[in-house]
Specification:
By secondary structure, the chain is α+β, with helices and mostly antiparallel strands. Helix content is 17%, strand content 45%.
């Protein structure tokens, strides 16, 4: 262990290496969500794990979009999006929405309903429909802040992303 006040560096490497950066933050387990939206040009969605609750007053959610994400123009045009938190049983959906399928095909065959004009995936662990408040540039990503206008809870255990793979909690670790 280092002396008090000294940083602990186990296997310190080049701090400018994007692959190491990806691996470092890949050690942070996150939930997995599908971000959906629908506008005049159609509906679409993408798999995401860079999201969080931002504020309780007002209720705000934050989602990060890669700048090249095909869902981002839909959200920008529609001014709304939904965060659909996936259950461990919905891993296949995570793959569909992470794929290069055309946006117009991603919701085909996926049970969903409309909440405030936004597709919400049936069977999700939880969901929040948001009005887009702000888009902020963040390097190769765009940070979206949405004001929550509706939300709900489902059942099941969460789908997790850790170290570059999907995982589920052990069966006895539920709420």
């Amino acid at each position: 262990m280092p002396a008090p006040g000294q940083p602990y560096l186990s296997g310190a490497m080049d701090a400018t290496d994007p692959e190491l950066f990806r691996e470092v933050f890949g050690r942070f387990a996150t939930g997995v969500a599908v971000i959906t939206s629908a506008g005049s040009g159609g509906a679409g969605g993408m798999t995401a794990n860079a999201l969080c609750s931002l504020s309780l007053d007002p209720l705000l959610a934050l989602v990060c979009f890669e700048n090249r994400a095909r869902t981002l123009p839909i959200v920008r045009e529609a001014g709304r999006f939904a965060v659909n938190l996936l259950t461990a049983e919905q891993e296949r959906l995570a793959g569909v929405f992470a794929s290069k399928l055309p946006e117009s095909e991603k919701l085909d065959g996926v049970a969903h309903r409309s909440e405030h004009g936004i597709p919400v995936i049936e069977g999700s662990l939880a969901w929040a429909a948001c009005e887009l408040e702000e888009l902020i540039a963040g390097g190769d990503h765009t940070i979206a802040i949405g004001r929550v206008i509706a939300m709900g809870l489902g059942d099941g255990g969460p789908l997790l992303w850790y170290s570059g793979r999907y995982h589920a909690l052990p069966p006895d670790s539920g709420p």
